[in-house]
Amino acid sequence: MTSRWWFYSALAALAVAVLPFLLLSLAAILTYPALPSLEILTDYRPNIPLRVYSTEGVLLGEFGQERRALVNINEVPEMMKKAILAAEDERFYEHGGVDYIGVLRAALSNFSSGGVKQGASTITMQVARNFFLTKEKTLSRKFNEMMLAFKIEHNLGKDEILELYINQIYLGQRAYGFTTAAQIYFGKPMNQLTIAEMAMLAGLPKAPSIFNPVVNPKRAKLRQMYVLRRMHELGFIDDAAFDAAQIEPIVAKRGNQEFSVRSDYLAEMVRQVMYDRYQDDAYTQGFNVYTTIRQQDQKAAYESLRKGVIDYDRRHGYRGPEGYINLSNNLNEEFLEEALQEVADSDELLPAVVQAASPKGITAYVKGGQTATINGEGLKFVQQTLSEKLSPNQRIRVGSLIRVQLDAKGEWQVAQLPQVESAFVSANPRDGAIYALVGGFDFNRNQFNHVTQAWRQPGSSFKPFVYSAALEKGFTPASIINDAPLVIDSIETGNEPWYPKNYDDRFEGPMRMRTGLIKSKNLVSIRILQAIGPIYARDYITKFGFDREKHGAYLTMALGAGSVTPMQMLGAYSVFANGGYQITPYFIQRVENAQGQILEEAGPVRAGHDAERVIDIRNAYTMVSMMQDVVRHGTAIRAMQLGRSDLAGKTGTTSDSLDAWFCGFHPTLVGISWIGFDNPRSLGERETGGGAALPMWMEYMEKALANVPEASYSMPENMVAARINDSGRRDPNGNRIEYFYREFLPPEQSIVIDQSSSPTDAPTEQLF
């Protein structure tokens, strides 16, 4: 009897011990066939964002919910693999999908804590979870995860699994996969990362938001140190590498700086085009768009525009701090950094909190961890705001939110976010390929693209098109026009009488047409337009791509009172630069799919080939000659500082200085710069195209043409170079040479247009 009792007791104990394994086996048998197909892994096609590249293949921007780039396991650096294994799964190449030792350790920890606190996910299990399951911490989900891990290990090799993990895992900042994370956090490809940077990335999967080096640099450092210790303990790195990696400073990129060249406005233009063509597929199918943008040109344009706007802004004084942060005697770095997190960056204009301020100097904590000490020259811009006589909101004091930047000498100075806006665009005049495009000062503050969307008055930068029209009516650069006061009566204006003036309020009497353009004389332009007729001129300017309805057939057209965009001016000035052909500026070179197959490719018309000739080559040559003199002797003479004789262009300043332009070119490059306020108001009494817009153009051209040899324009056939005197008369002993159409070569008496001239006066008749 006693023996039976022991037998049944032992049998019951065995059943209790074996039953869980039987139930587990039964669950596995029932669950395994119902597991999802692995087709999504074997035919891995993740959502890949739209990517925008420069013509050289430099990444300019990308669009999509997931930032991702695929990489083959053979292209992953060995040290990157080891860092991942040390952080996530050191026995990855030894277990069969589940690390039983890890599972047992996690189970004991969870049992003792009374809940599911710790997991034991292998890399294979994480792949299973990321592709098929949720992240909830339940026993049923964990069981399914293990079953999937077994299935994955049975069907895929270890390297295939690791490749999936490296490409799929989320690492913060919308980055999926280590290739993309390397670019986003450190601005470099994965094969250029240091051991310290690899360890930092390898530590992210555990908690991307907590260990994000941009948002939480201190926590990220702690996690990095753990990964480095594990790498050292596992023998992946030696003592010297371990010591060096621990002390290496980690500088994570902030904001949108993972792209080496700022091209936000251009990238957005590409996004709009791609969405119009492909709708939502544009963001998921891995389209690669190669633009006409040249990396160095774009960099030069961006820097030139920013410098020009900041210089303008500094000329008009400091407006005071952006705001105030109540420090409450709390000056520790963590508090200050947190206080600045919501303040948007603007490239080199860094937000900072003032820690100490007096007329002798300012100390400020700069977002990101630096401390700026400002004194001497750096204080001049804000000296008046350090006085205690000012109200608290106008004064720089402890807690003031300011902007700082480093000057050319590496010294800190107080700055501010400009209120004025600007635009710059350049292109090849032969085919319209856009080399640089900057649609505003800061895309993150203002997405309005001033290159394509800002309809503004061009002012005097429009005069060359009126002059070009006059050449077709028989005017020549030697034609004499009277720069004298003029009254346009109410019958002609349809409103009040008009008393046009020159910019400097001075009148110089009769002068050659060339001189009128060089000096940008308003009265000369108006008299020319009177002579050729506003209706004719309005029809003529459409040859350059301008909209007829944007330019009224009135004498104010001579002063640029119509509406244009910088993009229109780019195409229009290209006609002069390329010898008379109309081209269409374009910015997409080709579109490729994720496999590299070309889906679309640009076929631009080219000057001298398939482009339409819209003005006589002689007209273009004559206008270029006159605009070269604008640079050599006129309102754009400042550009002679570049030391080149092959530049031409025209300044533009509108009434009350609401807009300032410079439109200029080299035979191989056209550049348009504009500056003004979005809600139009005066730039300032002394601000002109030559002072506010030209410097941006010069900064760009100096860099863009650095290695381009001097060029020249050849005089076309059927033109005559003849000597003239100061009165514009042909004179064999004249001290000037002027260019004429052969059929319009004047006799020794040149035409004279004065205030008595009317639109019916025909210059052609006077020439013959």
Number of strands: 25
- The proportion of strand residues reads 15-25%
Q: Which stretches of 5+ consecutive residues score pLDDT under 50?
A: 21-32, 114-118, 755-768
CATH architecture title of the domain at 66-247:
Orthogonal Bundle
CATH topology of the domain at 66-247: Penicillin binding protein transpeptidase fold
Radius of gyration: 35 Å
Helix content: 25-40%
Fourth-tier CATH superfamily name of the domain at 66-247: Biosynthetic peptidoglycan transglycosylase-like
Number of helices: 23
Shape: elongated
How far is the first residue's CA from the last residue's CA?
143 Å
Q: What is the CATH C-level name of the domain at 66-247?
A: Mainly Alpha
Structure classification: alpha+beta
Q: Please, what is the average pLDDT?
A: 86
- Main sheet summary: 6 strands, antiparallel
Give an overview of the whole structure.
Among the domains are: 1-34; 66-247, Penicillin binding protein transpeptidase fold; 321-413, Beta Barrel (OB fold (Dihydrolipoamide Acetyltransferase, E2P)), CATH 2.40.50; 459-558 and 717-768, Beta-lactamase (3-Layer(aba) Sandwich), CATH 3.40.710.10. Helices cover 36% and strands 15% of the residues. The protein has 23 helices and 25 strands. The strands form seven sheets. Strands 6, 7, 8, 9, 10 and 11 form a six-stranded antiparallel beta sheet that branches. The chain has a five-stranded mixed beta sheet with strand order 2-1-5-17-18, with helices on one face. A hairpin with a 5-residue loop joins strand 20 (648-653) and strand 21. The longest helix is centred in the N-terminal third of the chain and has 30 residues, at 2-31. The radius of gyration is 35 Å and the shape is elongated. Mean pLDDT is 86; it is low at 21-32, 114-118 and 755-768.
